[in-house]
Amino acid sequence: MKTKHEQIIEHIISLQVGNKISVRQIAKDLNVSDGTAYRAIKEAENQGLVSTIERVGTIRIERKEKENFERLTFAEVINIVDGQVLGGGDGLHKTLNKFVIGAMKLDAMMRYTAADSLLIVGNRMKAQELALSAGAAVLITGGFDTEEHIKRLADEKQLPLISTSYDTFTVATMINRAIYDQLIKKEIIFVEDIATSFQKVYYLDAKNTIADWYRLNEQSKHSRFPVVDKKRQVIGMVTSKDVIGQEDHVFIEKVMTKNPLVVQGKTSLAYVAHMMVWEGIELVPIVDQSYQFQGIVSRQDVLKALQQIQRQPQVGETIDDIVSSDIMTVEADQTIFQTTVTPQMTNQLGTLSYGVFTALITEASSRLLLHVKKSDLVVENLTVYFIKPVQIDSRLIIKPHPLEIGRIYAKIDVEIFNDRKLVGKGLIMAQLIDR
């Protein structure tokens, strides 16, 4: 039987895009408490089903698919720019295809202003009116209001008319940054993207016996199984090591490993990979917020997904991507690396940031291990024990020295030089994953 929380989420999904949602109405319609309704609405917001806007309320929006992440809804734009809705509130759930900065003559501006676009403009009422007539939403900068007939036109066309106190350049930068951030998020793979669902998973009940384990082992050819209770909550894991030497009538709950490590669907693939290597785990159960069993992810699933990621182009660049793309090997030695400090790699003082410094250590160590042992690393410990300020445009030489490289473990000392002067040292300890 579905929980009240799940029933509310399903009810929200069933609502038409653009509908307004309130805690009180949900509580009344589904006969639940205000607290239960509030928590479910917040979860729906996390899932991208609704958006809450100041002075407007919570509205049902269309959930984005991964390929549509580069588009924002107008409701999201309002939150990004701290905007106020002047008109056209019924169109907040719509997405914008592009935005246009209204800093040109009207005829030129209208050539670029198409339906489903957003015109960013100041106190130019004729431009606002023409944009709405052409099917575009309007974002008025500088905190200006507009005339009543323009607000009525926005309501009639169901196109958002928004006002913000920020200037045009700042608003364009904020929207562009939001799109860019979503492009990076688009590339992050979560556990739910590679998981084996509950319906396809072999598992055992706490009151099953050792004999049941052997029957399931024969049927599935697997040796590890999650253990669930009557509420389908994960309470343990049982493996071949747990059942060896046990009599057939012994209950699984007597031999299982209690309180196993579990993850949720929105846990990142990188975190799960690190956890599996760190803890030596082959299989992790996936649960929802109430710890109900949803599926599993195996070590093999994770490694296959990581290999797939490496073959795909990165759309958005993180700091790690910038660091990685700028590091080159020194021609004379494939285990020594060089890079130049760019503005993106500096802190507010204009010197190499601490975070980038650690990224340089990690990237150089990773490339060294790839060259020497054909292995990837998962960082277990990183210690920076010496660092000097490094200016923009400085050319750095990075020298990783392997202190110990075993089958599954490595310890590497890294020195960083600028003009032959030592400017930083770090020690990295990591576990290895064979390619």
From TrEMBL:
CDD domains: CBS_pair_DRTGG_assoc (cd04596), hot_dog (cd03440). It holds the Pfam family DRTGG. InterPro entries: CBS_dom, CBS_dom_sf, CBS_domain-containing, DRTGG, HotDog_dom_sf, Ser_kin/Pase_Hpr-like_N_sf, Thioestr_dom, WH-like_DNA-bd_sf. The keyword Aminoacyl-tRNA synthetase does not apply. Keywords: CBS domain, Repeat. Residues 195-254, 256-314 form the CBS domain. It comes from Virgibacillus alimentarius. The keyword Repeat applies. This is Transcriptional regulator. The lineage of its organism: Bacteria, Bacillati, Bacillota, Bacilli, Bacillales. It comes from the Bacteria.
